[in-house]
Design a protein that fits this description.
Largest sheet: 8 strands, mixed
Distance between the termini: 45 Å
Number of strands: 8
CATH architecture: 3-Layer(aba) Sandwich
Number of domains: 1
Radius of gyration: 18 Å
Strand order of the largest sheet: 1-2-4-3-5-6-7-8
Helix content: 25-40%
Oligomer: single chain
Shape: globular
Number of helices: 12
CATH superfamily: Alpha/Beta hydrolase fold, catalytic domain
Order of helices and strands: HHHEEEHEHHEHEHHEHEHH
Length: about 325
């Protein structure tokens, strides 16, 4: 199938990246070390306090959590629960952490990032339950963390965006805690992998339909009983969700499932801001943060959060 063209600057940057092998059971262990980066360079120029915690997760599973707070935070601050990307099979709590750290800079937000379990070692709703456990811990320890429990943002990119959507649905359906906003960045929402954009972006692609199929198979373990918390596009009721931000690139596999999720939030009477960045490939603003389109996408996302979390909006 024909594909939407890439943004010219991003196309040039993408051409300079090394070609990765197809993602499968043999290559996954080799690729996992490249799905994260050290956090220290991100913190070197920031006046912050870093805490490393291990919190109780579901079934007494220990969950490592990193908390990064502005050192000069005054009044109780907003908080971001960050769910990292990596196709549900890679990454850790330091992956793409530069994105929520921009919100720390702009909003004075405390960032809480969790190492949720990964597939195929874990499956089904385990990843989402881990995220929900981190959300509960954040709210229940709000005083100690210096955060305002009424201003919690649940956010993630790619697979983390899908996990964030599942966590938000869990919180709504369990009646606790209240979430002020969710920011879903090119989220991975639909295991069916059969939209027009999914069929457009077969390999080679930054994230292809084939890689997507492998990742979903790793999570679902062949089960036919698929929870809508694991695959949020299956959710029949998208009402009563917090204000939502969704963005994606026009040249990526998740474009159409993300647009559909936004449309269904609107249909349910909800609030959602949707951006489809023309010429953006999957994860373009994480892989190439200095590109003009990436800077625009990041600034627009941050401006929405600032507007949504302002006292006037609340």
């Amino acid at each position: 199938m024909n594909r939407p063209p890439l943004d010219p600057e991003l196309a040039g940057l993408l051409a300079d990246l090394p070609e990765l092998p197809p993602l499968d059971a043999e290559t996954l262990p080799l690729m996992r070390p490249y799905a994260t980066a050290p956090v220290e360079p991100l913190l070197a120029e920031r006046d912050v306090i870093r805490r490393e915690e291990v919190i109780p997760g579901p079934d007494a599973q220990p969950l490592p959590v990193t908390v990064i707070s502005p050192r000069d935070a005054g009044a109780p601050a907003p908080a971001v629960l960050w769910l990292h990307g990596g196709g549900m099979v890679m990454g850790d709590r330091y992956s793409q952490l530069d994105i929520p750290l921009e919100w720390l800079d702009a909003l004075g937000a405390v960032v809480v990032s969790v190492d949720y379990r990964l597939a195929p070692e874990s499956g089904g709703t385990a990843l989402v339950e881990d995220g929900y456990a981190a959300l509960r811990w954040t709210v229940e320890n709000a005083d100690d963390l210096g955060i305002d429990p009424t201003r919690i943002i649940v956010a993630g990119t790619s697979a983390g965006g899908g996990v964030a959507a599942g966590v938000t649905l869990l919180a709504r359906d369990r009646g606790f805690p209240s979430i002020a906003a969710q920011a879903l960045i090119c989220p991975m929402l639909d295991h069916r992998n059969d939209t027009v954009s999914a069929r457009q972006f077969i390999a080679p692609a930054v994230w292809s339909r084939e890689a997507n199929a492998f990742a979903w198979d790793a999570l679902l373990h062949g089960s036919a009983d698929i929870s809508p918390y694991a695959s949020p596009s299956l959710t029949s009721d998208l009402s009563a969700l917090p204000p939502t931000y969704i963005d994606a690139g026009s040249a990526e596999v998740f474009r159409d499932e993300d647009v559909d999720y936004a449309e269904r939030i609107w249909a349910a009477g909800g609030t959602c801001e949707l951006h489809v960045w023309s010429g953006g490939f999957h994860g373009f603003d994480a892989l190439s943060p200095g590109a003009v389109l990436s800077r625009q996408a990041r600034a627009t996302r941050t401006a929405w959060l600032a507007r949504t979390m302002s006292p006037a909006a609340r």
